[in-house]
Amino acid sequence: MTKTMAPSSPSMTRPDHFAIRFAPLSLAEVYDLADDGANGAIVLMSGMVRNQTDGKAVVALEYQAYEPMALKVFQTIAQEIRHTWPDATHVVIHHRVGKLAIGEISVLVAVGCPHRSEAFAACQYAIDTLKHTAPIWKKEHWADGSTSWVSIGACEQPSG
Fold this sequence. Notes:
This protein has 160 residues and is an alpha+beta fold. The protein has one domain (16-145): Molybdopterin biosynthesis MoaE subunit (Aldehyde Oxidoreductase, domain 3, Alpha-Beta Complex), CATH 3.90.1170.40. Helices cover 30% and strands 38% of the residues. It is built from four helices and ten strands. It has helices at 27-34, 67-84, 116-133, 152-155; strands spanning 2-4, 17-21, 41-48, 52-53, 56-65, 90-96, 98-101, 105-113, 136-142, 147-151. A five-stranded mixed β-sheet has the order 1-2-6-8-3, sandwiched between helices. Strands 4, 5, 7, 9 and 10 form a five-stranded antiparallel β-sheet that branches. Helix 2 (67-84) runs antiparallel to helix 3. It is elongated. It starts with a strand and ends in a 5-residue tail after the last helix. Residues 4-13 have low confidence and may be disordered.
């Protein structure tokens, strides 16, 4: 599912873009969607499937999402970015669902801004907020053949 949002300010020439896709995500597409002549920076964060979690071997991840609500969360994140960093030109958030192999991209977040410090801060805010609020879950497939489901927000919690 893909959702394109209308421009939130008259100076924007293209809308923000949010998507949840089964197909592989494209770095070039997300970068292009965030590109704008007003940008001095585009920060793009690529989340990938790694081969271990807490020292335990992972062979794949499987993502599921409640798509309508997740897309609304992405839109809310963009609105919050525009409130905090009003010069942001574009916010792009794409997340993948389905079973992904080691090295595949699971999430792409890009934010374009006139200045790099705002672009970095807004992009970090977007991914951190997404991981803690979006209704997206991942199933870890372990090398020993076992699996476990976790909310992606739980994945980034510091261990006790």
